[in-house]
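Working notes for the structural subgroup meeting. M.R. asked for a predicted model of this chain before we commit to crystallization trials. I am recording the input and output together here so anyone reviewing the notebook later can reproduce the run.

Input as submitted:
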Amino acid sequence: MKYFAIAVFIVLIGAVIGTWSNASSTLPAEQLAMKVKAASADLDIAKSQEQSIPLSPVEEEVEDSAFKSAPKEAESILISQKQALQIIDDNLYNAINNQVVDVTAERELLDYLRKTNNEQVYLFIMEKLESTNKGNKSDDRLIEYALSLLAAVDSPRASELFFNVVRQDDWSGSNAIYSVRSSISRLARNNNNNYNSLIQQTFTQVNDENPFLNELAVAIAEDAEIEQVDYLISYVDSPLKNKSAVINQAMHSINKESLVPHITTYISDSSSSSVQNVALNTLANMGQYEAASALIAWSSTQRIEAKKQVESLFTIALARSPSTQRAIEKEILFYEFTSEELKQTIINLSSFFK
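Returned structure, recorded in token form:
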């Protein structure tokens, strides 16, 4: 319809111009101006008709096709395998020589690996890592960059390769340790792909001198379910002293209130004293209402000799969260304590933290 309006306009103007040229010698300027004004009015009528008459299906299709063919913003184009390998080679070279890496190219590489999981590219990275000597400054920089790259990809395959390197034994004297620790923690925090079993398997396989024991144990504890609680508890009395020590500390990172009933099963006489203590400290550090309730129930069965431990547990719990204080206020009066002195100790601590 818009082409029809244009055609009408051309015809009208042509007619005016023709009349003008023929009559310009005889018509006054005022009459000519009136003819031009009349032609403009006719054009306005044509335009209004165009707006009021709906497009036919064919015309709509043409309009829609023209709209769809309009240029769009350029979409990002995935790089090739050859380009990916070149980016890795260039950025590793820069990392080794303590130079700035190409961040833009790195983003393209990460996008490529997340979308393709190209095994040839991963193999190239692993070959570079296998050729390094930990403790050598240049090689440590290569290890730092390559492992941080795998961690940033954050896919199951990249993470599997990452933890394969973490499992290695020869980390003594390497400056890459600090960067790798950070990468483990970042992978655990961004655990969208559920790496629990992979991290757990890594902790099992590494030796007792591995420098990443703490980060692995904390990663397991922070995302723990019942299976992970049992796994961690199994190391409490382990002859592997370093693993046992980091597990005892990592248990403090468990904070899911739904795990309280299961953790409580470990504070019975059927557990060793060390396991009971770890379970009690885990409950205290949770700072949850249900955890505090479990501590009150346990305290009610203890003799006065446990006063120092009870004080310590409730001091931790009260400092962690106001939920502990609410639990004491609502529940402690319903328990009959073996030692009234322990009961009063808990009440006094609660009053102190108000």
